[in-house]
Amino acid sequence: MDKNRIATLTMDDGRSIELPIMSGTLGPDVLDIRNIAKLGMFTYDPAFFATASCTSAITFIDGDAGLLYYRGYPIEQLAEKSDFLEVCYLLLNGELPDAGQKETFTGKVKEHTMVHDQLARFFTGFRRDAHPMAVMVGVVGALSAFYHDSLDINNPEHREISALRLIAKVPTIASMAHKYHTGFPFMYPKNKYSYVENFMYMMFATPAEDYVPNPVLVRALERIFILHADHEQNASTSTVRLAGSSGANPFACISSGIAALWGPAHGGANEAALNMLEEIGDVSRVKEYVQGVKDKKYRLMGFGHRVYKNMDPRAAVMRQTCHEVLKELKLENNKLFELAMELERTALSDPYFIERKLYPNVDFYSGIVLRALGIPTNMFTVIFAVARTIGWISQWNEMIADTDHKIGRPRQLYRGAVKRDYVPVKKR
Ligand code: ACO
Predict the structure, then answer these.
(1) N or C: which end of the chain has fewer CB within 10 A?
(2) 312 tagged catalytic
(3) Which among 296, 352, 356 is the best mutation to test ligand 1's pocket, defined by most ligand atoms within 8 Å of the CB?
(4) Which of 344, 357, 358 to mutate to test the pocket of ligand 1 (most atoms within 8 A of CB)?
(5) In this predicted structure, what is the pLDDT of residue 334?
(6) Among the atoms of ligand 1, which is closest to the Cα of residue 356?
(7) What is the pLDDT of residue 218?
(8) Active-site residue, from 131, 178, 231, 305
(9) Residue 3 scores a pLDDT above 70
(10) Residue range 36-56: average pLDDT?
């Protein structure tokens, strides 16, 4: 394969097979194990600890070094210098836009910020106390029913318009989920605002008052969106790819990604991390709580990562953003933030966490920032979904554009009953 490098696998019965070694532009080499089928065998790697499920040119992570690049650009540079729509363009198209491309792209996204008026009726079918992620799974999936004119996934123009619709409409749907839950009227998007300002407007404005976005808070949310925009083949992205590999439409695929994101081991961790901080309640209880973690009674939410065995680079940016937001809001002595800092200090100096290479992940601090911005806890994972939509759609698009892609179909190691004959109920 790459430079004809080969590994040889020899079986206990003497048979052997050559496995090509593939190299990427960055990261470890990868063994192409497809020849193993010639031995009449499969490989076994539940939870994908050692398996690359695809090739991709979008996002690179070096978990040992704590690096994250979008299309080659370090996340710290993008978080500091870029804005979310520029990052969307980059992830989708591979390059940063020039001034004209940026203006056109921004204009196209703004054209699609409203949702079909009938979509609003879906909300009233939900209980007011429904979790907004439940509403997101349903309503984003329901977009499939509205755009039959552009659902030919093999047509690049159709894929582009679906991508634009998703980037533009998911924030509108997210804010509607929040308004419905709290009983306030829906706020239609206002395209005079930037993408993030508009989202904050739809979330926080009411028809009764003027709304003036605070630039420090807008910048903080912009950073949260940038930091969460993509993260290579995580659980929700792999779900989107697997659903998309069957030819399902992009709205249905993104809805499946939202469902996968919801779990506390993935996107639900930001909500769980904030609930945990509130449960601990006071700095004086940190040691006792950490002991409970070490006794395996519960996990420290917002800590640990499958890939990062060093500081999550997004967590470092988020901690800085946390400082900025709390200062702006004159909440420097915020109790939860102090608690989080103490928890981080205690965990990072404890052998349990050091030996297992458990560091804070992005969700450890994002909850405090979101809380300070006035976003209710049950909307935290929804914010993550809004930001990750661009990653999902870029990864889906990359897969569909590859004409060699096939339906994803893992195999299994069967350990069930061997063949047996049916016994009538009276004889059982
Ligand atoms: N608190 C305490 N111990 C932990 C934690 C944690 N947060 N995470 C892992 N461990 C321990 C495990 O108990 C295990 O210990 P053991 O070897 O004694 O059995 C060891 O570390 C390895 O854990 P695994 O579960 O095998 O690691 P895995 O890579 O499968 O899990 C995961 C990664 C799911 C993120 C895990 O670290 C976790 O549950 N973290 C808390 C939830 C969280 O913050 N998720 C957000 C992830 S980032 C994101 O989605 C944006």
Answers:
(1) C
(2) no
(3) 356
(4) 358
(5) 84
(6) 21
(7) 96
(8) 305
(9) no
(10) 94
DSSP string, 156-174: HHHHHHHHHHHHHHHHHHH
Active site residue 45: no
pLDDT band of 83, cuts 50, 70, 90:
very high
For residue 278, count other CB atoms closer than 10 A to its CB: 14
Its pTM stands at: 0.93
Active site (annotated) includes residue 148: no
Instruction: Write down the pLDDT at residue 269.
Output: 87
Residue with tokens 């420090």: 216
Ligand 1 first shell, C-beta below 6 A: 265-267, 269, 293, 299-306, 356, 358, 361-363
* Average pLDDT, integer, range 228-233: 97
Sign of CA dihedral 224, 225, 229, 234: positive
- The sign of the dihedral angle between the CA atoms of 164, 165, 167, 172 is positive
- Residue located nearest, by CA, to atom 10 of ligand 1: 304
Those residues with Cβ within 8 angstroms of residue 95's Cβ, 6 or more apart along the chain or in another chain: 71
Structure tokens of 109? 């996204």
Reference 195, options 176, 216, 213; nearest CA is: 213
